[in-house]
Design goal:
This protein is of the alpha/beta class. It contains 11 helices and 10 strands. The chain folds into 2 domains: 210 residues, Spore Coat Polysaccharide Biosynthesis Protein SpsA, Chain A; 60 residues.
């Protein structure tokens, strides 16, 4: 079977850690089916340590790495939108710069697109780890079927964004990514569903996602809650969810976001994730 060409798309900004980024890149090199290109959008200036890692990979794989440098930090939605436009191939795999891809991730997703030419977006479950990939803590399962995805998306994200592979044409048809802090991906999935994209999740765990106290810290407090409310309002404005859906999710998130971090950790562990 002839290998399908595809891009990997990532956005990198100044607060990312060089060590985590290096681990992510190594996981791409270890794939059973390697990406045709890796598109890295620099969302504003990055640290010297990150630049050193980027230079190392550029020198070792000059035809593999494509860097898109934005002069100022524009936010994830704008960075990803530019990245999508710059990807050379129809199939694009999203990846977060601090996560680790299982070595057969792309092989499994490419088989799904080969099997179903009408498929537009395909993700998977994730295993969350803290510090080291060997320290696996929780797993997040998502719906498998198109119908399940479409319904679940009204309440929570039906895709683990760092696992998705999608068609560039379907993303552009849906209007590409938009500026929607915390909701860039959810808004994208909804627009894709509304424009007829065919969706699927693989019933497997293809990405190890970095979690821990840093992640919990970002998901709490009044500033986070305001961004969440604003993002959900953007989703409400699409007409995809009802006002009741909006009120219910904002109410639940208000409780979780304002809990002390220790209690928030318990909620994530007991209610929003599955233990390993």
């Amino acid at each position: 079977m002839e290998q399908m060409k595809f891009s990997v798309l990532m956005s990198l900004y100044i607060k990312e850690r060089a060590k985590y980024f290096d681990e992510c890149m190594k996981s791409l090199l270890c794939q059973t089916v390697k990406p045709t290109e890796v598109v890295i959008v620099l969302d504003g200036p990055v640290s010297d340590s990150l630049r050193a890692i980027i230079k190392q990979y550029q020198e070792s794989y000059p035809e593999w790495i494509k860097i898109i440098a934005l002069k100022k930090n524009k936010g994830l939605g704008i960075a990803l939108a530019e990245g999508v436009r710059q990807c050379s191939y129809e199939l694009i795999a999203r990846m977060d710069t601090d996560d680790v891809a299982r070595k057969d991730r792309f092989e499994k997703q490419l088989k799904e697109f080969k099997k179903d030419p009408c498929l537009d977006i395909c993700g998977s479950h994730i295993i969350e780890f803290d510090g080291s990939v060997n320290n696996m803590r929780f797993k997040r399962k998502v719906p498998i079927t198109h119908r399940g995805i479409a319904e679940y998306q009204k309440q929570r994200s039906a895709f683990n964004h760092m696992t998705v592979m999608y068609k560039k044409s379907a993303v552009l048809k849906a209007g590409n990514y938009q500026h929607a802090p915390l909701m860039e991906d959810d808004l994208m999935w909804i627009h894709m569903l509304q424009t007829g994209a065919k969706c699927r999740n693989i019933d497997d765990y293809l990405v190890y996602a970095r979690a821990g106290d840093e992640m919990l810290g970002r998901r709490g407090g009044y500033a986070y809650l305001k961004k969440y409310k604003d993002g959900r309002k953007q989703i409400l404005d699409t007409g995809y969810i009802s006002y009741w859906d909006y009120l219910k999710t904002v109410f639940i998130q208000s409780i979780v976001a304002l809990l002390p971090r220790k209690l928030r950790r318990m909620v994530f562990a007991k209610l929003l994730r599955y233990g390993l």
